[in-house]
Amino acid sequence: MYNTTAKRHESNGPRALAKAGSLDKHKLLSGFLMANLLVALLLLVTLFHGPARAELRVASLHVPAAELVGKARLKYLVWNVFDARLYAPSGRWSADAPYALTLSYLRKISGTQIAELSVSEMRKQGFNNQAVLNRWQRQMDGIFPDVAPGISITGIRDEKGHAIFYRNGKKIGQINDTEFSRRFFNIWLGQAASDPGFRRRLLGTNS
Fold it and tell me: What is residue 47's predicted lDDT score, i.e. its pLDDT?
């Protein structure tokens, strides 16, 4: 009888209160960890989908019903250069219709290098009018910024065939020359693109 009573008093004593407090602390800690996990997940969603939404907003300024066509990563030897995403009306690309191409850079490259490489690729594809290439290079030099990881350039071919450029969603320049637009975007999208596999992934096709 004594032992039973003692146990009953013990169950209501300091040890029981300590145990209850420990359980409450455990619940609070679990709730805290769960809240932090939810915040982290929301941050990850924003991190991965925020830039895509921004690109789509820019594309939609000039491309009706803009949707993603395809995406690809360009590599040079062992280096990742940029991630590319192509947007077109309802996700169907045509060289003669408006579209937007976003390049999200993964390395530091100067704007001058981008212009020089663009001219070099146009020349490789068979365009050899040096006077025109020189003019285009000067125009690109005045538009393209130095880039680094976290910087994206979106090039848009609008309904008039002009090329409009944005840096991280802010307009940085425009070249109103349909021949320039065709030659420039053909670097990645044309039949003679230097990386056919990259082109296929960007266009979302195996053809």
Answer: 37
Handedness of CA 75, 80, 82, 88 (dihedral sign): positive
Spatial separation of the C-alpha atoms in residues 138 and 183, rounded to whole Å: 16
Q: Are strands 152-157 and 66-76 parallel, antiparallel or unpaired?
A: unpaired
Task: Tell me the residue ranges of DSSP E strands in the chain.
Answer: 66-76, 79-89, 99-105, 152-157, 163-167, 170-175
Sign of the CA dihedral running 73, 77, 79, 81: negative
What would the two tokens of residue 82 be? 């940029």
Nearest Cα to Cα of residue 152 among 20, 75, 80, 54: 54
Residue 72 phi/psi, 5-degree rounding, is -160, 155
Per-residue pLDDT band for 42 (boundaries 50, 70, 90) equals very low
Q: What is the pTM of this model?
A: 0.74
pLDDT beyond 70 at 1:
no
Q: Which two tokens stand for residue 121?
A: 């690729």
Beta-carbon contacts of residue 175 (< 8 Å; ≥ 6 apart): 136, 139, 140, 143, 162, 163, 181
Q: What's the CA gap between 206 and 189, in Å, rounded?
A: 13
For 144, the 3-state DSSP assignment is: coil
- Which residue shows structure tokens 């820019």? 58
